[in-house]
């Protein structure tokens, strides 16, 4: 007849101990979000010719990300106002490059060219081969954005792809204006990892 009180005491003790034990359980770490993969000091967008300095040549940073269907690259500048009023040197023909290496052996590079009259066009290549690209300028954020389809870059279908060695350059008449410093080996982006960008 004493079994029931003992059983009840055991159940009560279990209810007290269980929450206390759970409180010490380690929380599952949140997935890493990759952002600001490339950075550069401001106000250094200058050509070798004295006096030729432009916010449009000044690279601030960049990001790259992949999704299930696309790869997106974003380059941030100090300005994307290339009008003669906003940038009197823009008629000298500017261009930009942004890219990264892959652990699978390819270089993914995105470029833009400022043409006479203020039009900017974009291009992209994967492993040295040109691929179709959608290019856009966000004048509010001063960014260039390139988007390519994974299906147009066959090596993006291979597993264990990690991007590293991010770089960016700006040019005037094909001569260097601004170049980013080499990124540390720890600055990587694993294929399809979470990012501050939102590729499709």
Series of H and E elements: HEEEEEEEEEEEE
The average pLDDT value, as a whole number, equals 88
Percent in helix: 10-25%
What is the domain tally?
Answer: 1
The CATH architecture can be named as Sandwich
Folded structure, characterized:
The structure is a single chain. The chain has 200 residues and is mostly beta strands. It has one domain: Immunoglobulin-like. The chain is 10% helix and 38% strand. It has one helix at residues 3-23; strands spanning 38-39, 59-66, 70-77, 94-102, 107-114, 120-126, 129-131, 134-138, 143-149, 162-172, 175-179, 189-190. The strands form 2 sheets. Strands 4, 5, 6, 7, 10, 11 and 12 form a 7-stranded antiparallel beta sheet that branches. Strands 1-2-3-9-8 form a 5-stranded antiparallel beta sheet, with no helix packed on it. Strand 4 (94-102) and strand 5 (107-114) form a beta hairpin. The relative contact order is 0.21. The model is unreliable at 1-23 (pLDDT under 50).
Summarize the structure.
Helix content is 10%, strand content 38%.
Question: Layout of SSEs?
Answer:
Elements: H1 3-23, E1 38-39, E2 59-66, E3 70-77, E4 94-102, E5 107-114, E6 120-126, E7 129-131, E8 134-138, E9 143-149, E10 162-172, E11 175-179, E12 189-190
Antiparallel strand pairs: 1-2, 2-3, 3-9, 4-5, 4-10, 5-6, 6-7, 8-9, 10-11, 10-12
Features of the shown structure:
200 residues, mainly beta, Immunoglobulin-like, seven-stranded antiparallel beta sheet, five-stranded antiparallel beta sheet, 1 helix, 12 strands, 10% helix, 38% strand, disordered N terminus
